[in-house]
């Protein structure tokens, strides 16, 4: 209960603020456990299919950059080769057209979700992603948007200005 | 004639004119699975109403993620104690209104109205957007949820201080955080995988 070591990804993002909000998080243990479960299912999948784990970290890094969340960016940058991380973070071409298409979709879904159309999904399909891959990529982008706001909100509750 | 998942992907006949508390349908842009093709893992996440829903049958293509998503949803919106459920649904409506998710806003505004008995106030939120003014407590919840849901988030310690001054507990504020965060997830799925349709009268 009083441990200050990170127990999950949101604790890790909160850093030294984690202990202050632990009682609030522990009031909803299933929310804590399954948020971590979703992270694990997305970043350590049984079978990544068309969206590799490296691509997943690159997508999460792009979301973190768009949402201006440095701790989250650090988390995913650490999982990537420097050049790839730099490209994903700075919205430059990565040299991989599939990843570039996924990052374009990441920008749309993170910053202007209501503008998504069925043509945007057709564009992903044109790069060889199938229906299941598109579902996974959508879950990934959407989940990271959840996770960063849970951490940002909890950080404010811990008393620190965002 | 049996409807196949391929038939479920189709042009929308009647688009909603705007934000509404009326029931809407949701039409997928890519193919859900058929229950007859579902694996054991997929069937396990398609219990009850989810088996009929094209949305959940589409998400069931990645069953491990769907299982965790549904469990997070249930914990945040149905867990005991903390923020009154009407205000959790109000928060879901604020985030959905900000993100432009007409379908999510219809479901959760209607729930918020049923739970609070304040359908007219909820309708003003849908009509006027997150700048609407209702009363001190709801305005403070709305402003915090909208600021946290923005990209990048722009919620501040001032939003939290205002809620605390109004007597909102930290456990309740944590529920607002999680309800807004969860709809930052849910809205993006519904907005990118399909679109709402007004049901046939």
TrEMBL record, chain A:
User: Which InterPro entries is this protein grouped with?
Assistant: AhpD-like (IPR029032)
Q: Mind telling me which SUPFAM superfamilies this protein's record contains? A: AhpD-like
- The name this protein goes by in its record: CMD domain-containing protein
Organism name: Pseudonocardia aurantiaca
Upper classification of the organism:
Bacteria, Bacillati, Actinomycetota, Actinomycetes, Pseudonocardiales
Automatic annotation (TrEMBL), chain B:
Q: Which organism is it from?
A: Pseudonocardia aurantiaca
The protein's name in its UniProt record: Alkylhydroperoxidase domain protein
Domain of life, per UniProt, equals Bacteria
Please give the NCBIfam families that the UniProt record associates with this protein.
ahpD_dom, perox_Avi_7169, peroxid_rel
Identify the residues that the record assigns to the Carboxymuconolactone decarboxylase-like domain, covering every copy.
63-126
Pfam families linked: CMD (PF02627)
Alphabetical list of InterPro entries matching this protein = AhpD-like, AhpD_Avi7169, AhpD_core, CMD-like, Uncharacterised_peroxidase-rel
């Amino acid at each position: 209960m009083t441990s200050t070591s990170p127990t999950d990804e949101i604790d890790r993002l909160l850093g030294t603020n984690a202990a202050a909000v632990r009682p609030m998080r522990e009031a909803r243990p299933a929310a804590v456990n399954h948020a971590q479960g979703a992270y694990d299912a997305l970043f350590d999948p049984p079978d990544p299919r068309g969206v590799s784990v490296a691509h997943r970290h690159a997508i999460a890094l792009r979301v973190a950059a768009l949402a201006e969340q440095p701790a989250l960016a650090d988390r995913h940058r650490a999982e990537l080769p420097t050049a790839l991380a730099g490209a994903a973070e700075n919205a430059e071409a990565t040299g991989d057209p599939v990843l570039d298409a996924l990052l374009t979709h990441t920008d749309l879904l993170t910053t202007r979700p209501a503008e998504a159309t069925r043509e945007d999904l057709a564009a992903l399909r044109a790069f060889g992603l199938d229906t299941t891959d598109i579902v996974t990529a959508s879950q990934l982008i959407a989940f990271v948007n959840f996770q960063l706001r849970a951490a940002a909100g909890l950080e404010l509750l811990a008393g620190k200005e965002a | 004639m049996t409807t196949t998942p391929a038939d479920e992907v189709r042009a929308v006949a009647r688009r909603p004119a705007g934000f509404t508390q009326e029931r809407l349908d949701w039409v997928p842009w890519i193919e859900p699975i058929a229950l007859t093709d579902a694996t054991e893992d997929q069937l396990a996440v398609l219990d009850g109403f989810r088996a009929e829903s094209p949305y959940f049958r589409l998400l069931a293509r990645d069953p491990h993620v769907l299982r965790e998503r549904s469990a997070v949803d249930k914990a945040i919106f149905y867990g005991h104690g903390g923020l009154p459920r009407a205000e959790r649904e109000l928060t879901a409506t604020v985030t959905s209104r900000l993100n432009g998710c007409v379908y999510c806003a219809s479901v959760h505004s209607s729930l918020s109205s049923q739970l609070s008995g304040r359908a007219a106030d909820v309708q003003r939120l849908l009509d006027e957007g997150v700048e609407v003014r209702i009363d001190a407590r709801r305005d403070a919840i709305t402003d915090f949820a909208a600021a946290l849901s923005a990209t990048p988030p722009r919620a501040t310690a001032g939003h939290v201080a205002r809620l605390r001054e109004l007597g909102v507990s930290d456990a309740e504020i944590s529920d607002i955080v999680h309800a807004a965060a969860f709809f930052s997830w849910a809205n993006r799925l519904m907005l990118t995988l399909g679109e709402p349709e007004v049901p046939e009268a």
